[in-house]
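Amino Acid Chain and Its Fold in Token Form
===========================================
What this section holds: a protein sequence and its matching fold, both as plain text.
Structure line: whole-number tokens from a learned vocabulary of local backbone shapes, matched to residues.
Purpose: to set a sequence beside its fold so the mapping can be learned.
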Amino acid sequence: MTIAAATPDLAHEYLAWLKINLLTVRRGQTSILSTPFLDPFHDGIEIHAEPQSGQWLLHDGGRTLDNLLDLGVHIENSERRQQIIEHAIAGCGVEWKGGRLQTYASADGLAQRAHFLLTAVSRLNDLWMSAAPRTASDFFAVVKEYLDERDAHYIANVPIPGRTVDHPMDFVVSLGKGRDRLVKLIGAPTLQSAKLVSFTWMELRETRPHSQRVVLVNDAAPSDALSDEEEGSLRHMSQQSTAILSAYSDRVLRWSAHNEEQFVSALVA
């Protein structure tokens, strides 16, 4: 008799992984939250929290901009790149100011705003490590145009309340009769992006149990995400990332299949 292997509790494992790898360090009046989510140079993303006029100022310490400069990405004189940044952080309640990503939070909303800031930083890191599937645009703009061309009824960049915090949703597609489809985009299919999206789905299982949960992965792989040249190769997504996303998503779609009928019905219809 063959005994089936027990299905791992990915939710429990993910939360345990977060608890073990989150670390707070005090530097004067500033608290620095070190997270297990990695930047393009495989360093942990840090969130700085500073008390200011009865609130908390949360920011990335300018690290995101420094990373872009190290990658040779200069945004000061590029309106297109600034627009890409605005698209990436839209819906996160975060602003780009003085060379850093920042947001303000009350004591009660500190965890929520920290989550939004981490999402914004991750989106930007994801963007520069990934490849837009066409010239002079980012993945969000391309998908938005795709939905518009098919007359989809949707709202973009909307926060959805979860069990503990709100979660920025790239698109909410209306299916009629009170039904909807929640769509999260992944610009680069990495293990950490898969974990972050799956955490969102875990949070929304209780608050939006009847919504469809769809992940759309940009698997195009040009050599430079911001170049004006396109290539036809595809980006590999690991089996572990695929398994994590599939465990908590109703559908995992790949952009390379966007012209196929099944893709259209799974995203729009």
Remarks:
- The first strand starts at residue 23 and ends at 27.
- Residues 139-267 form a domain with the Trna Endonuclease; Chain: A, domain 1 fold (CATH 3.40.1350.10).
- Helices lie at 10-21, 63-70, 79-89, 110-129, 139-149, 191-207, 239-248, 261-267.
- Residues 130-137, 223-231 have pLDDT under 50 and may be disordered.
